[in-house]
Amino acid sequence: MKSILIIIEHSESVIRNASLEVISEAVRIKKSLGLTLNALILGNITDSALKEIQKFDIDTIRYDQSKVFVSYTPEGYAEAAIHIVDELPKPLIIMMGATSQGKDLAGRLSALLDCGLATECTKITVNDGSGLLYERPIYAGKIVSQIKPNDRDIHIVTLRPKIFEKEYSEGTPRLITNAIGVVQDALLSRYVESIKREGSRPDLTEADIIVAGGRGIKSAENFRVLEELADTLGGAVGASRAAVDSGFRPQSDQVGQTGKTVSPKLYIACGISGAIQHLVGMSSSQYILAINKDPDAPIFKKADFGIVGDIFEVAPLLVEEIKKAKSA
Amino acid sequence: MNILICLKQVPDTELQIIPNEAENDIKRDNIKYVVNPYDEYAIEEALKIKEAMKDVSVTAIAVGPERSKEALRTALAMGCDDAILIVHSDDIIEPLHVSKILSAFAKTKEYSLILCGKQAIDDDSASVGPALAGLMGWAQATNVIKLEIAKDGKWARCSRQIESGTAIIECTLPAVITAQKGLNEPRYVSLPGIMKAKKKEIPLIAVDTLSVGDLSPAFTILHFSRPPERKSEHRIFAGSIQQVVEQTISVLKEEVKVL
Questions:
Q1: Residue A31 sits in the same domain as residue A166
Q2: Is residue A186 part of a domain?
Q3: Which domain does A26 fall in, by range?
Q4: Do A155 and A37 fall within a single domain?
Q5: In the listed set A160, A177, A194, which residue is the last one of a domain according to the structure?
Q6: Per residue in A196-240, pLDDT tens?
Q7: Interchain contact, A142 vs B124, CB within 8 Å
Q8: Is the separation of the CB atoms in A238 and A211 below 8 Å?
Q9: Which fold has domain B2-209?
Q10: For residue B62, what pLDDT band results from cuts at 50, 70 and 90?
Q11: Which of A116, B15, B29, B250 has the lowest tally of Cβ within 10 angstroms?
Q12: CATH number reported for the structural domain that contains residue A213 in this entry
């Protein structure tokens, strides 16, 4: 391996945590294998965001603010990446976060570069001092697949968010602006607008605390109790498939297989029995607190802490005590 | 308008999955296979377009072992006009290879739209759709929860689910669209539908009859394993509600450190 190219993602001109994690892991690989580390930023970021990137041991940052890159398009970003790939020494690893944008781009890029793609990696190890091994969960995490890239010029890896530790590293990156220098005129798609989720709760895949409810919550209105608990803790609200399919919560709140895989610091499972397709989506949480009326619910076998009781009695009291603890 | 739906037959979500003895695949004895759940949204969306517009033909296609015919049969029973299986005997195929096989086939016909599930729930790669778009040189929209096709059939407006909410894009057709849960409510298969599907022929195509290019693997699978068990003490708090809540607050403070 000779070089790494990281494609950096930003949201509202701020670097996304998923990208900072990718940079951190790439720096660790660089230290082990002695590669050159390159980053590509397309679109506009704030000055402080640019400064933040410069806090890492990256060799070269290529930055292009051309109008065509201000909003993400898979065709435009893929073409820009290929432009940089051509300049970099091979073998080359292209890295990005396994976010909705990262996955959209990585798939297209793998086709255009005719190269392998390992998505949603959760562990990277250096093998024999020269190669890399990747671990990626498959079957929603029921199985872990360990793979090794074959001898090719280029491969792409995407890293699952909130798995790799963010770690600043000393460096003096060279900054190249207007790095691409070609203007796209044949984009096949156009970004129109984004509609933000209501409220200020974080996204499930980015939240440190998640309060999730299952069939036991019984109605959409009852979820207000969990929303209050989540808001008191500054967390997100999640739901089991049963709760989503019963119409209690929107699909975007679903945790588990056919929903989101989450790794928060604390996962509070309320009225969730613990079907396998739910457990696989949340078992990489650092701590799990289960609240359920049924002492035999399988969720207790995964939980660190358990409360056997009625969520509608427990949650309001928890909210009250958390508020007290926070103001103390 | 011709629509192609790409399907995969996958193990049911309810199943516990374990590695085989050689640790290079999963144990496949007694596995119940279903249509990949996300692909059902793709089928439903194509059928809705067929119902709303004139002269729409919907073809379902799968790349996989011969048993994948069952999944295609389900697609036919739901209302697809025809179904084709590209036989690939290996259970594990690299996603880009699937995209190459699908694009080699699609290039021999004239499709305006290719619909796929946003990911297959076995490999969880979520890359066959966007890679297929790249190989076709088409526009793409992944994770789509709302799709509107323009009356002239030349472009589409897509709502994509992203971390912060929804992103709306407009793309030219032909395009590859991948379906996320929430796009629609897939219909149930009716008995007359099943009877009709039974009578339909599902043609088999061999991969080597298509010009697919290089299919040498980019990765070597070293081994499949079960994820490590979570280490936890399963501490169940006891006492009155007040006491239980106090104990909870104390661990949230001292151990979890979120307060």
A1: yes
A2: no
A3: 3-177
A4: yes
A5: A177
A6: 988 889 999 999 999 999 999 999 999 999 999 999 999 999 999
A7: no
A8: yes
A9: Rossmann fold (3.40.50)
A10: very high
A11: B29
A12: 3.40.50.1220
CATH number, domain containing residue A86: 3.40.50.620
Closest among A279, A300, A295, A322 to B251, alpha carbons compared: A322
H helix or E strand, kind and range, residue B155:
strand B155-162
User: Is the separation of the CB atoms in A73 and A44 below 8 Å?
Assistant: no
pLDDT of amino acid A182: 65
Residues contacting residue A101 through CB under 8 Å, at least 6 positions apart: A9, A72, B162
Furthest-apart CA pair in chain B: how many Å?
71
Put simply, the answer to whether B142 touches A104 (Cβ < 8 Å) is yes
Instruction: Give the residue extent of every domain in chain B.
Output: 2-209, 228-259
* Alpha-carbon B195 to chain mean position: 25
Q: How many domains does chain A have?
A: 2
The contacts of residue B95 (CB under 8 Å, 6+ apart) are: A107, A117, B123, B125, B127, B128, B131
**A189 in any annotated domain:** no
Copy the structure tokens of residue A27. Answer: 């720096």
Contact: A194, B217; criterion CB under 8 Å: no
Q: What is the 3-state secondary structure (H, E, C) of A144-161?
A: EEEEEECCCCEEEEEECC
Contacts of A148 in chain B (CB under 8 A): 219-220, 222
Residue A254 and residue B181: Cβ atoms within 8 Å?
A: yes
Per-residue pLDDT tens digits for A98-155: 999 999 999 999 999 999 999 999 999 998 777 899 999 999 999 999 999 999 999 9
Whether residue A161 sits in one domain with residue A214: no
Task: Give the SS3 label for residue B174.
Answer: coil
